[in-house]
Design brief:
Layout: E1 5-9, H1 13-26, E2 36-41, H2 43-52, E3 60-64, H3 80-86, E4 88-92, E5 95-101, E6 106-111, E7 114-119, E8 125-131, E9 134-142, E10 144-148, H4 156-159, E11 171-177, E12 187-191, E13 195-201, E14 208-212, E15 215-217, E16 220-227, E17 233-237, H5 243-250
Length: 253
């Protein structure tokens, strides 16, 4: 079996060395010509690779040359072609973020893991939360809030005490970060079709920033978030180690 593989790596020395070794062994093609893209790095690099290659037909297979590697497979140099042939595919859809800053500029970004709002000053943020046009929480005083996909539910969302979501659940997690009022409000589970809007109250006194997979917008006025089914990311995992298994295992560690 032969495959046209594009090896991409982060700037970490261990990832660069892996790219050189694997491309010498299996060959290297341009990502636009590849049948599969192999990402070498950590989860952050995997997210960047998925965003950068979302217009291409090739699925992405990650091998961990970073720290956690939740979205990655184990790194082995041998038998890569067999592993790619036997790999199982997961298809995930990102979130779309639309936000207006206080200067009136509109910004758009996609997020595979989560869209988060974070206070950008010494005082807690004041947010109003609207879901599908209906105000659900007139005031949330907090350090921030986020909306996470099932694929991203074990990342920042889980650290903020949000729920882990099964991949096939068609649910989004809306999670508060250090909520002060309502006291200890953790958030809500929403259907994947929900459109969530955060309005920043007192933005001059309590500035807020928005972040979509490390694309940050400062000094925002409002944010709208919804799933983007028109965009699909194809990720390959070794058999028995797909996202569903990882999400379940994470809850027992």
């Amino acid at each position: 079996m032969s495959l046209k593989i594009a090896f991409l790596s982060s700037d970490a020395p261990v990832a660069l060395a892996a790219r050189d070794t694997l491309s010498a062994r299996y060959g290297q093609v341009d990502p636009h010509e590849a049948e599969v893209i192999v990402a070498l790095g950590g989860d952050g690099f995997m997210l960047r690779t998925l965003h950068a290659t979302q217009e291409l037909d090739a699925p992405v297979y990650g091998m961990n040359r970073g720290t956690i590697g939740f979205l990655m497979n184990e790194y082995h140099e041998a038998d890569l072609l067999t592993r790619l042939q036997q790999a199982e595919e997961e298809v995930i859809h990102p979130l779309s973020m639309r936000t207006m800053d206080r200067e009136g500029m509109l910004h758009h970004a996609l997020a595979i893991n989560e869209v988060s709002l974070l206070r950008a000053g010494p005082q807690a943020a004041r947010l109003r939360i609207t879901v599908d046009g209906k105000v659900r929480l007139a005031e949330l005083v907090c350090d921030g809030a986020l909306v996470a996909t099932p694929a991203g539910s074990t990342a920042y969302n889980y650290s903020a005490h949000g729920p882990i979501l099964p991949i096939g659940s068609h649910v989004l997690a809306l999670t508060a970060i250090a909520a002060f009022r309502p006291r200890r409000w953790q958030g809500a589970l929403l259907p994947q079709s929900a459109k969530v809007r955060f309005d920043v109250l007192e933005p001059e006194k309590r500035p807020v920033m928005a972040d979509a997979d490390s694309i940050s917008i400062d000094d925002i006025d409002w944010v709208e978030i919804q799933s983007e089914p028109a965009v699909s990311h194809r990720i390959l995992f070794d058999p028995g180690h797909g996202l569903e298994e990882r999400l379940i295992s994470e809850q027992f560690t």
